[in-house]
Amino acid sequence: MNDHRNDHRRLGRELGIFDTDPLIGSGLPCWLPAGAAVRKAIEDYVYELERRNGYQHVNSPVLGKRELYERSGHWAHYAEDMFPPMNVGGEEFVLRPSLCPHHALIYRSRGRSRRELPLRLAELGGMYRSELSGVLGGLTRVRAIQLNDGHVFCAPEQAAAEVSASLDLIEAAHAQLGIRAARYRLSLRGDGAKFVDDPAMWARSEAVLREVLKERGRDYDEERGEGAFYGPKIDIQITDPAGRESTLSTVQVDYFQPERFDLSYAGGERPVMVHRSVVGGIERLVAHLIEVHGGAFPAWLAPVQAVVLPLSDTEQPAAESVLRRCLAAGLRAELVAAGRGSLGARIRAHRLVPYQLVVGPREAAAGGVAVRRRDGSQAGDVPVEQLAAASRPLY
Ligand SMILES: [Zn+2]
């Protein structure tokens, strides 16, 4: 068992990020208010990052007919990770193991011209994995995953540029989140029925990924048997405090699913699908962020960004007014009344909050605050609007 100080399971519970209940089932965590706030901040950030980079967002259902996954190839190559089908009125439905088939059908919903490409679709959506109870833990191995997914449908000659643009997004997001990649991995096919047997297709997609890695001057390791069943991947690996490695972000080149779904543009040309996830599954990402930051999230991610601390009950009305201004300015803020302990005790209890806004007699009279940052430094009377502006992510 991992008993590291920053183990996300221990800290996640202390910080009110998530919890699990055996009655819901293992691997099915609930997001508590602090965790839901962090998750929403990430979702908003990724949505905006994608929007600024030419993505259109879609929403699609978390299940589909068994035939959909027979067509996509999941049934033949990935069934052991899928939940068994549910029979409803003679039709079989499965919880989806990935979002790709839905996005392929959205692409196919009407004719596509060459001018429309690259068509970039993104969705933050649910996907499901039938992990066994024994391997589940905290947020790192779960059965219900909220995936930041995206698929770029492009002409073959656009694929390398789209892979490179996806890596740009990934690197920008990692910098904003305060994450450092452990290594880049080129994940290739292995032997056996897990992988589509079409050597020429694999060679073609591998060549695209190698070209991009070379052009970017990236060091990477090659690993056979780690590819998706339909194609090779660039995986961006992270490590937890115990040194265990996992994949966070990924970019994949796929010639297989466009074939299976008979996707086309300009009346008969076959597009390429670039699958990419900028920050991966939200569960694993938040587990990693808890461990990296030890709960002291960057201001834009912090569950509570500002805590208002009246010195005594006399300043309570002025503090309430500060709280209203914080909330109106877009800050996640709360007020901790004087009755909850001495000022020092309340500051210690909220030491992970980026901004502590103390309201004493002088501040109450002037309608201001004395801002204390969580590192203990004093910033004086900063308008709450300015604190809100400093608590937004950069794109
Ligand atoms: Zn995909």
Automatic annotation (TrEMBL):
<feature type="domain" description="Aminoacyl-transfer RNA synthetases class-II family profile">
    <location>
        <begin position="33"/>
        <end position="298"/>
    </location>
</feature>
<dbReference type="GO" id="GO:0006435">
    <property type="term" value="P:threonyl-tRNA aminoacylation"/>
</dbReference>
<dbReference type="InterPro" id="IPR006195">
    <property type="entry name" value="aa-tRNA-synth_II"/>
</dbReference>
<keyword id="KW-0963">Cytoplasm</keyword>
<dbReference type="GO" id="GO:0005524">
    <property type="term" value="F:ATP binding"/>
</dbReference>
<dbReference type="InterPro" id="IPR045864">
    <property type="entry name" value="aa-tRNA-synth_II/BPL/LPL"/>
</dbReference>
<keyword id="KW-0547">Nucleotide-binding</keyword>
<keyword id="KW-0436">Ligase</keyword>
<keyword id="KW-0648">Protein biosynthesis</keyword>
<keyword id="KW-0067">ATP-binding</keyword>
<dbReference type="InterPro" id="IPR004154">
    <property type="entry name" value="Anticodon-bd"/>
</dbReference>
<keyword id="KW-0862">Zinc</keyword>
<comment type="similarity">
    <text>Belongs to the class-II aminoacyl-tRNA synthetase family.</text>
</comment>
<dbReference type="GO" id="GO:0005737">
    <property type="term" value="C:cytoplasm"/>
</dbReference>
<dbReference type="InterPro" id="IPR036621">
    <property type="entry name" value="Anticodon-bd_dom_sf"/>
</dbReference>
<dbReference type="InterPro" id="IPR002314">
    <property type="entry name" value="aa-tRNA-synt_IIb"/>
</dbReference>
<keyword id="KW-0030">Aminoacyl-tRNA synthetase</keyword>
<dbReference type="Pfam" id="PF03129">
    <property type="entry name" value="HGTP_anticodon"/>
</dbReference>
<protein>
    <recommendedName>
        <fullName>Threonine--tRNA ligase</fullName>
        <ecNumber>6.1.1.3</ecNumber>
    </recommendedName>
</protein>
<dbReference type="InterPro" id="IPR033728">
    <property type="entry name" value="ThrRS_core"/>
</dbReference>
<keyword id="KW-0479">Metal-binding</keyword>
<dbReference type="GO" id="GO:0004829">
    <property type="term" value="F:threonine-tRNA ligase activity"/>
</dbReference>
<dbReference type="GO" id="GO:0046872">
    <property type="term" value="F:metal ion binding"/>
</dbReference>
<dbReference type="Pfam" id="PF00587">
    <property type="entry name" value="tRNA-synt_2b"/>
</dbReference>
<dbReference type="InterPro" id="IPR002320">
    <property type="entry name" value="Thr-tRNA-ligase_IIa"/>
</dbReference>
